[in-house]
Amino acid sequence: MNSPMNLFGSLIAAAALSTPSVLFATPVTFADHDVSAKSLADAPKSMAAAAAFDTAVGAVPIINFDTTTFGNGVHSTYTNIVDATACTPALGGALDCGYNTTVGGSKFLLDLPTSQFNGIVTFSFDTPVDAFGAYFTGWDSNGHNLTYTTIGGATVSLPMPPGGPSNSVGGTAFFGFIDPGASITSVTFNAMGVFVKEAVSIDDIRYRPLASLPPAPVPVPEPGTLTIAGLGALAIGLYRHKRRQQTLF
Fold first, then answer.
1. Residues 54-64 pLDDT 10s
2. Beta carbons within 8 Å of 221's beta carbon, 6+ residues apart
């Protein structure tokens, strides 16, 4: 005679075969670039990527370096906020150095590497975020990358759009990502020069603090969980009914 536990185990095994597996979130990126673009008017692909990112994250804080700068819980290891006059011929001029992307603005963050292969700038957040995006201009080299770190210390490195051909000068890119459920405390951009120091400018930084998200919904049992619970109750009920019949006869 089968015990209720044996019957229950058999029913669980059968139900498990129909229970969907759990899917884990992965970063979603929004990225594109326009070779040699010297303004957003010449950068339709970058603007389209930015629009897609903005639609996905909703209304979020933006640092444009004209009316908003670092502060309010956002910090940077590099604070070289400049206007176009900083892009001297020694840096390749305005086209190669980058430009402002804020409508009606003039300032941007100029990431000027201290060595040929090291142009690192890190943004840190007192309130963790799960999304980050920005315009990058003076975008004419390959190998740039962006890395973010979570509260638990995990790091994720994301490749960024390529630059233009070897003879191109300047360029524009938008790069953004969303990592649903992540608690990101810092984002690091590394500008990689190829033959010379690579000056890259950053503007209109968007980020989504976790505190701005709506409360998480109350968990609802998966259909498979309900099925297993129901089958378990059924197995116990059948067992008790059979025992009752045996007692009567």
1. 999 999 999 99
2. 229
